[in-house]
Amino acid sequence: MLNHIKEADRKYVTLDDRTARRLAQEDPELFFETYGTKLIIDEFQRAPELLIEIKKIVDKKALNGEDNSGMFWLTGSQQFYMMKNLSETLAGRVGIFFMSSLAQCEIQNCIRGYFAPDLDMLKKREKLSSLSDIHSVYRQIFIGGMPKLYSSDIPRERFFIDYINTYLERDIHDLEQVGKLDAFYNFLVFMAAHTAQELKYEEISKEIGISAPTAKSWVSMLERSGVIFILRPYYDNITKRLIKTPKIYFLDTGLAAYLCRWPSSETLENGAMAGAFFETFVISEIVKSYYNQGKGLNLYYYRDIDKKEIDLLFVDATGITPIEIKKAKDPADADKNFYVLKKLNKNINTGFVICMADEMVPYNRDVWLCPVGKV
User: What is the pTM of this model?
Assistant: First the structure.
């Protein structure tokens, strides 16, 4: 993607190339004399020695009153090492973009902004025709959004086999926190089977046979590498009756479906996890829309000790916007728990039920049905 949008005079080098990597590791100064300082450096985490030299170059530019923005575009696939080295060396000098798998609007070549729970904006928002019926939605859930599945003819199962093997053997294997890869794979499967559910470390520890601290460390790895999104619960000091356990969502539903061994979109649509995958799909699409716009997220869910739950809360200066996610076309009692937000003494905006409705229609005076294609 960066190679496609780069300027004509920006060069590209990958540190998968042994010659370039050796030069970067042994003589960073000569590396930049050779390749220049308007550069895309791919797999840069293979030569952390470059970062000190980059710091020197951009700082010198700043001291001379010259523009030093965007000199280097650094990309890589091993996010753990990337983030560690960047935070230690280039703090305050770098912008970081997290990229997940493709959102549906990208797959359908539809340009639109982030999802905002605003009635006027949602009415104007284009509805994706590819998500017009429940079967098409589950086909997209089953495939997921990995770019290679749309840019090549590689079979879905073959792709995910290679993806997981690469993730385990390259990105995870060298980390000190991971011992047996078999246990980590079982952990991945367990997490996929619990997408859209509460994150309980004790349960993970018991089922996988690892310690609770290890479970927390591995969950952190999945979050930092963009495999999962953790949705925090909403609570304030007004009440202590709120549940404070987060929920997990896979950011690519195709990966989660593969790990759970669902053989087809039809079996997934009619299976026990149909609701959880629909909810995961909606959450992941919303999260991706914010990532793609470089915007921060103020998303939460609500659950109290009386088991009153609301799938999603948007919280901003205007107040709280409640959202329920249902795979039905005309869900019954979808907003039944919205009333519990009144005790928080905050402004409660118009709520939404994201579902298989054909169009934006009022559910009642305070809640609207929103087609999943609008997400």
Answer: 0.89
